[in-house]
Structures are given as structure tokens and as C-alpha cells.
Amino acid sequence: xxxxxxxxxxxxxVAGVLGGVAEYLGWDKTIVRIIGGVLILxxxxxxxxxxxxxxxxxxxxxxxxxxxxxxxxxxxP
Length: 77
Description:
Blueprint: H1 17-25, H2 29-42, H3 44-56
């Protein structure tokens, strides 16, 4: 079994922090982003925590075929 690692999401809104947390916990990204947005807007701690996480969290590793647009290439007979 692969080891779980907290990384920034490749599905980013701002820096990918909240998406990465949602992926790590297995929660819906929308719910985590709403909770994070409320914390950021209502408390100074939320904004500070987000900025620190954006700096400290590593980016998600690139996959081999990330640059290929889905459906761009088709097989020829």
C-alpha cells in the first residue's frame, strides 16, 4: 500500500492547499474549501495557516502524461 502524503492538489483554486487537505483526508474538496474560506475570512489564524501551508507543503508529483490533452491523440488504422 502506498504511503499517504500531504501535498498541494493539482486541482488548484489559489495555491492547492485546501484541495490537498481534502485529498489527504478523503473528503469532498468543496466542503473543505468552504470551511477553509470561512476560517480565512473570520479569523486571522485561518489566513496565517493557509499562507504557511502554501509555503511549506510540497507540490503534487507530476504524472508522466500530464501535458497530453485528453482525447488529443487518436489511433490510426
